[in-house]
Write a structure and sequence with these properties.
Blueprint (H helix, E strand, L loop, with lengths): L9 H13 L1 H23 L34 H18 L14 E7 L3 E11 L2 E10 L6 E7 L13 H10 L5 H5 L1 H11 L3 E5 L12 H6 L18 H5 L4 H18 L3 E11 L1 H12 L5 E5 L24 H6 L6 E4 L13 H10 L6 E4 L10 H13 L51
Parallel strand pairs: 4-5, 4-6, 6-7, 8-9
Antiparallel strand pairs: 1-2, 2-3, 3-5
Helix pairs in contact: 6-13
Length: about 450
C-alpha cells in the first residue's frame, strides 16, 4: 500500500487554499517569474551572452595581427608637458629594460689605448681601443684638429651597414655616378663618406670618435655574420650555462646584440668625454642608417649629448632592418619617431631619402615639430629632405649636419637660421664645403694587437 502524499492530508490542503485566497498576487507573480525565466533560458541557450557587439573584439594587442619591422609606427604627442614627462619616463624605462640594461651595468675600467698618431696636416688620426665590458673591445679612429687650443666640441660617430664599415670605399665608378647625380661633390670625400664626415668635423674644430659596430672593421670578437645576419638557431648555444646570443636563454634574459651595441655606444661616450681636450657641455652624435638607430637610442637613454643628427632612419615606416636594431619588448606601443622625441628639447636634425623615410615630411615630422613646439623649442628640430637620392649619408646630407654642428659649436642651442627651412619641413640650402684630401692612409686599421680579449663569438 502506497503511503499517502502530504498533499492528500485534508488539513494541509485546507491551509494551502486559505493562503492562495489570502495572497492571490503571490501566485500570479511566481507564475510570471517562471515564464520570464523560461524565456530567458531559451535566449541563453540560443546565444552566449556578449560584452561587445557582434563582430567586435576587445581592444587587446594580443588579438591584433603581429607587427613586423615594416608596420606603421605613428607618434602622437601629448597634450601637456606634465603628460610628456610621465610618458617619457615610461618609454625610456621600456628601452632600457628591453635592451637588458636595467638596472644599468657596472661601468668597469675602460683600459683605453690611444696610439700611433697619423699627421694629416690640419688634423690627426689615432688608433683607439677600449673595453666596454671586461675583455670586450670597442675599436675605432680618433680625429683631432690641429692648432685648436683649449677644450673642443666632441662628436661621436657610429656608422651603419655600409660594406667594411669604418673602412668603406665606394669605388671610383660609384662615386663618379653620385657626383653626376648631385649626391657628392668631390671624388676622394665621396669614396669614403663615413671617414669624410669625421675629417670635415675635425677641420671645423671638433674631436671626433668614429667607432666600429660589432663585427665590422677591427671589431672581430663577435662576427658580422652572427651580429647582423643571424637567421638560424644554433643548438650548441642552447645550453643551461654559457649560452649564446639569440638563444632562448639569451632572449628570456633580454640579452641581445642591440643591447651590447648600445652599451658600446654609452661607453664610447664615456671614452670621448674622458679626453682632456673635449668639452663635456658640447658633445653631439651623428650616424646614418644603423648608425642613425644607434644615435637616437643613445640620445634617448643618455642625457649628456647636446645635439643629435640621426640620418635616414627616423620614420613611421620600417623601424630597423637588422638584428642589431631590434630587441624583444622594444617597440611595444611606441616607435622610432617617439624615440627621437625623447631628445627634445635639444637640437635634433633629421634627413629623409627615397627609402622608408620618404614620407617623413608628412608622417612623423609634423608630430615631432608639434612636440618640440609644446616644449617651447620649435626652432630646434629640422628635417632635411632628400627624396631625390637613395638611402645615403651623402654630401648633401652631411652639409646639413655640418650646419647643425657649426651652429651649436658654442652655447647656442637653436638651429634656426642655420638650416633655412621651407614651409613644409625644413629643407636646407648649405654653402659647399670642400671634403677632399681624404688619403688612403685614413683607412687606419688597428692591426692584430687589439684583436684578442677574453670574449669569444657566442
Amino acid at each position: 500500500m502506497n503511503p499517502r502524499s502530504i498533499d492528500d492530508d485534508p488539513t494541509v490542503r485546507a491551509r494551502n487554499v486559505c493562503r492562495a485566497r489570502a495572497c492571490p498576487h503571490l501566485t500570479r507573480t511566481a507564475a510570471s517569474i517562471l515564464a520570464l525565466v523560461g524565456c530567458l533560458s531559451a535566449d541563453l541557450w540560443a546565444a552566449a551572452p556578449r560584452a561587445l557587439p557582434e563582430g567586435q573584439i576587445p581592444r587587446d594587442a594580443r588579438l591584433e595581427p603581429l607587427k613586423d619591422l615594416d608596420g606603421y609606427y605613428p607618434f602622437e604627442p601629448t597634450d601637456s608637458k606634465e603628460g610628456w614627462t610621465r610618458r617619457a619616463e615610461r618609454v625610456r624605462r621600456q628601452i632600457q629594460v628591453s635592451l637588458g640594461l636595467w638596472p644599468w651595468p657596472e661601468r668597469t675600467p675602460l683600459n683605453a689605448v690611444v696610439r700611433d698618431p697619423l699627421d694629416q696636416g690640419d688634423y690627426t688620426i689615432e688608433k683607439v681601443d677600449f673595453e666596454s665590458l671586461p675583455g670586450f673591445k670597442v675599436t675605432g679612429s680618433l680625429y683631432r684638429p690641429k692648432g685648436k687650443p683649449g677644450k673642443r666640441p666632441g662628436v661621436l660617430s657610429p656608422h651603419g651597414h655600409w660594406s667594411d664599415g669604418r673602412f668603406h670605399d665606394a669605388g671610383s665608378d660609384a662615386v663618379r655616378k653620385e657626383i653626376a647625380d648631385g649626391a657628392e661633390r668631390f671624388e676622394e670625400g665621396g669614396r669614403s663618406p663615413l671617414q669624410s664626415r669625421s675629417v670635415q668635423l675635425a677641420r671645423m674644430g671638433c674631436v671626433v670618435f668614429h667607432y666600429d659596430m660589432i663585427g665590422y672593421a677591427d671589431s672581430v670578437q663577435i662576427s658580422q655574420s652572427l651580429a647582423h645576419g643571424f637567421a638560424k638557431q644554433r643548438p650548441e648555444m642552447n645550453a643551461r650555462e654559457n649560452w649564446g646570443l639569440f638563444s632562448p636563454q639569451a632572449e628570456a634574459r633580454l640579452q641581445s646584440v642591440m643591447g651590447l651595441q648600445t652599451w658600446n655606444s654609452i661607453r664610447a661616450l664615456d671614452f670621448l668625454l674622458s679626453l682632456p681636450d673635449v668639452d663635456p657641455e658640447r658633445v653631439g652624435v651623428t650616424g646614418a642608417s644603423g648608425g642613425g638607430t644607434q644615435t637616437f637610442i643613445l640620445c634617448a637613454l643618455d642625457s649628456r649629448p647636446a645635439a643629435a643628427f640621426p640620418a635616414v632612419m627616423v620614420s613611421t615606416a620600417m623601424q630597423g632592418g637588422c638584428t642589431c636594431e631590434n630587441a624583444c619588448l622594444l617597440r611595444v606601443e611606441t616607435g622610432n619617431v617617439e624615440f627621437a622625441a625623447l631628445f627634445a628639447p635639444k637640437p635634433l636634425g633629421l634627413t629623409s631619402a627615397n627609402d622608408w623615410t620618404r614620407e617623413m615630411a608628412t608622417k612623423g615630422f609634423p608630430e615631432l615639430r608639434r612636440h618640440y613646439t609644446l616644449l617651447g623649442a620649435a626652432d630646434r628640430v629640422a628635417l632635411h629632405r632628400g627624396e631625390q637620392f637613395g638611402h645615403n649619408y651623402n654630401y648633401v646630407s652631411r652639409a646639413a649636419m655640418y650646419a647643425l654642428a657649426w651652429r651649436n659649436r658654442s652655447s647656442s642651442v637653436t638651429i634656426a637660421g642655420s638650416l633655412a627651412r621651407n614651409s613644409a619641413c625644413g629643407m636646407t640650402r648649405i654653402p659647399p664645403r670642400r671634403e677632399d684630401r681624404i688619403s688612403s692612409a685614413s683607412c687606419y686599421a688597428l692591426g692584430p694587437k687589439t684583436r684578442g680579449g677574453n670574449w669569444t663569438a657566442r
